[in-house]
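Table 4 source record.
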Amino acid sequence: MAGSMVVAGIAVAGPAAAAPATALACSLGADAPKAGAGGTIVGVGSRTGCGSSRVTLTVRVQKKRTLQTDVTVGSRTHAEFGNGNMSVVAGCDGNATYYTETLSSTGNKVKSAERKLC
């Protein structure tokens, strides 16, 4: 058996046998926000390739501010989230630069490209 060995008469799988070489890593995504209906901003976050594991996932639309802390203009959280997309609709907070941010309860987070909206 490639990637395995026998210890005290018991076959033990090594790393090569334990995980297929083509396995995809669990990852987060964040699409740049888009203009929605009625002057809103829509941000979409995602979690893919994570098998059956579950996390609390938060997607938020942030307004970028110079020399100040960025402001959350819209947020959505879902407990026990597996794989897929989650969107949040935010109100426009003036003509500014916005981005989408996806956060996992594991501590991982990802930020989208920025986009000037409203």
